[in-house]
Specification:
By secondary structure, the chain is of the alpha/beta class. The chain has one domain: Metallo-beta-lactamase, Chain A. Helices cover about 25% and strands about 20% of the residues. It is built from eight helices and twelve strands. The protein has a seven-stranded mixed sheet. The two termini are about 35 Å apart. The structure holds fe (ii) ion (2 copies). InterPro entries: Metallo-B-lactamas, RibonucZ/Hydroxyglut_hydro. This is Metallo-beta-lactamase domain-containing protein.
């Protein structure tokens, strides 16, 4: 993972996942260096990952007090249980539904859980974090947040977009990608990850985006896009455009068989 201190007290830890035919999806986690340190999301769940070891390059994992899982998809929960072991004081911030989803796979220790719904605040000593459901999401347990001290908006899957290379996916500033490529990537991701947006009532959706625009974040930190600082106008404009994104359909069985036939026989 690449580590970028993008704000004086926010570190982004950047990983990526290659999606065939689509690109390189950033997979970010965040450390808010608050009086009570907060980790937001815990990365990919594949066996080659050691999230706690990566985190130790940024902060002593034992000091972590809050582990905020924006939603329990497996690209957000990779290091969760190892981190809760390494951070005995830490509480898992999620929703009732988030606990339910995680309970399908794990014995969630309820005495370690802190339930927080959109609109509620978490006091982390020197600041509060306010929970929000972002305009685009792929899981009903989703709660992003705004840090009231830095103004940073941590938006979960919302604002994401696949990049053209691993280097772009893990870079410190989305401005390394052209504005047109970023916009196209965001519209593609909206259609892939939140396909329901293509059928929304547009005035209602526009009002939701508007209410987020008024948060006037100092930085937009998506799990699936390099950090975006000073780009609120175009970032929210891309979100506004999402209902008009071209619809996306994944490869079908015929395409899979063509792909498999193109591989060299083994042995
Ligand atoms: Fe997701
Ligand atoms: Fe995700």
């Amino acid at each position: 993972m690449e580590k970028h201190r993008v704000l004086p007290d926010v570190t982004v830890m950047s990983d990526h996942a290659e999606i065939p035919g689509i690109g390189f999806l950033p997979v970010n986690t965040f450390v808010i260096h608050a009086e009570q340190p907060v980790v937001v999301d815990t990365g990919l769940s594949t066996p080659d990952k050691d999230f706690v070891a990566e985190l130790a390059e940024v902060i002593d994992p034992a000091d972590v007090r809050w582990v905020w899982i924006t939603h329990p998809d497996r690209d957000h929960t990779g290091g969760l249980w190892q981190l809760l072991e390494a951070a005995p004081q830490a509480k898992l911030v999620t929703t009732f539904l988030g606990v339910g989803i995680m309970s399908c796979e794990w014995a969630v220790p309820l005495d370690r859980v802190h339930l927080l719904n959109p609109g509620q605040r978490l006091d982390v000593g020197d600041r509060t974090l306010t929970g929000y459901r972002p305009p685009l999401f792929d899981n009903p347990a989703t709660v992003g947040l705004q840090d009231d001290k830095t103004g940073a908006l941590l938006s979960s899957d919302c604002f994401g977009g696949p990049m053209g290379s691993p280097q772009q996916a893990m870079c410190a500033d989305v401005r390394e990608v052209s504005a047109e490529d970023r916009r196209a990537a965001q519209l593609l991701w909206a259609a892939i990850d939140s396909p329901w947006v293509l059928g929304v009532d547009r005035p209602t959706y526009a009002a939701t985006v508007d209410s987020f625009r008024r948060l006037d974040p100092s930085a937009i930190l998506s799990t699936h896009l390099p950090p975006a600082i000073g780009l609120n106008g175009p970032m929210f404009d891309a979100l506004d455009e999402a209902p008009s994104a071209p619809s996306w359909v994944g490869p079908d069985q015929e395409a899979l068989e063509a792909l498999l036939a193109s591989f060299e026989p083994v042995g």
